[in-house]
Amino acid sequence: xxxxxxxxxxxxxxxxxxxxxxxxxxxxxxxxxxxxxx
Amino acid sequence: xxxxxxxxxxxxxxxxxxxxxxxxxxxxxxxxxxxxxxxxxxxxxxxxxxxxxxxxxxxxxxxxxxxxxxxxxxxxxxxxxxxxxxxxxxxxxxxxxxxxxxxxxxxxxxxxxxxxxxxxxxxxxxxxxxxxxxxxxxxxxxxxxxxxxxxxxxxxxxxxxxxxxxxxxxxxxxxxxxxxxxxxxxxxxxxxxxxxxxxxxxxxxxxxxxxxxxxxxxxxxxxxxxxxxxxxxxxxxxxxxxxxxxxxxxxxxxxxxxx
Lengths: 38, 259
Known about the structure:
heterodimer, A: about 40 residues, mainly alpha, elongated, B: about 260 residues, alpha+beta, five-stranded antiparallel sheet, 4 helices, 10 strands
């Protein structure tokens, strides 16, 4: 029997596996503000 | 043969920051007016490969005005960025650089500076003094009064005005005009200038013959002037001590284009 739980797990398996502790990279530009924005 | 495509450079990548540092030094080194500018943000970066070990880098930079006059000997790293409520001035620059065999150099730059809007300042600080035009009558009057006052008291060389850098006016709780201006030493003492001021000529363009004055003229309730000037040749470098607690530091130029 197909259950909701199995469907959810299958959906998870479709995603690209990411290593533990993965932090998405910051957007490449613009860069960080060093002082303040005006 | 087209060069192999490179991974796009991020604005906070070390290579972008290295290029921005070269660009900011170039911009300050080629400016003759106002204050030194410091990097606030790298807005955009594009790299166009030209061949092996050769690339053109296009940078879009957001700079902020510091308190160090452009003629000051203080290194940029020791210059304090002017705070938001001091009515900050921003510089937007487009810079074209070349990276050849690992060495970065500037090919061209174009900058435009502008002061923050009065509305932005008053929203945060309703009574803060605001920048006014450098040819404002009260600014001119205050610069003249301060320089005359200084020259009447100094035992050093007679100073001439080179350039007004900043003028701010506050109306509440007192009517106060704050001015900052660059000066040059002349070949006359202040005493000699009293006899024939027209004969006093600016000394050669050596950094030690330049100086900077900052002061205030209170217009109401009681009129008085207070300020000081110092020649860079006589200055002990103390870059991060606030203005008015030491003589000679500061001046700016808003609305200025350079290329």
